Amino acid sequence: MGKPRPGLKLVDPASGRELAGSVEVPRSSFGRGLGLMFRRTLPTGHAMWIKPCNGIHMFWMNFAIDALFLDRAERVVRVYRRLGEWRIVPLVWGAHSVVELPAGSLDGLDLPKGHQLQFVQS
Fold first, then answer.
1. Spacing of C-alpha 76 from chain mean position
2. Smallest Cα–Cα separation from 78: which of 46, 48, 55, 44?
3. Cα–Cα distance between 9 and 79 in angstroms, integer?
4. What secondary structure does DSSP assign to the chain, as a single string?
5. Is the separation of the CB atoms in 10 and 47 below 8 Å?
6. How many structural domains is the chain composed of?
7. Cβ pair 26, 76 in contact under 8 A
């Protein structure tokens, strides 16, 4: 499974807002497939970055999430807010990865297609 990478954060350079101060990256196919299933929660300020990935499901999820689909250059392809349990997100064309965050993490942010995000080491 994945571990939070020491100091890996997700930021929105345009607003200066930190979207996640601790980003977990699954390192195996099994970890990517398992994702956040069966967990009780995803704490505020945390995220899971699954790559490669261009579609997700919410089966066996115990909480809602916000999902950011990104291209290879970490630009927004599609945003899903407050995805509930047992939902399916079909394949997102052009996406190379997805960042899963606690529901509400993206509130108040305008994230149009092509908007640049950035993963940074602290």
1. 11
2. 55
3. 18
4. --EEPTTEEEEETTTTEEEESEEEE--SHHHHHHTTTT-S---TTEEEEESS-S-EE-TT-SS-EEEEEE-TTSBEEEEEEEE-TT-EE---TT--EEEEEETTTTTT----TT-B-EEEE-
5. yes
6. 1
7. no
Range of the domain at 29: 3-121
Provide the CATH number for the domain around residue 111: 2.60.120.1140
Q: Quick check: 70 and 53 in contact, CB under 8 A?
A: no
Pair of tokens at residue 74: 């970490």
Average pLDDT (28-35) is: 75
pLDDT at position 92 over 60: yes
Residue 4 has pLDDT above 50, yes or no: no
pLDDT in tens, 17-26: 999 999 999 8
Query: Among 121, 74, 122, 120, which residue's Cα sits nearest to residue 99?
Result: 74
- What pTM, to 2 d.p., does this model score? 0.89
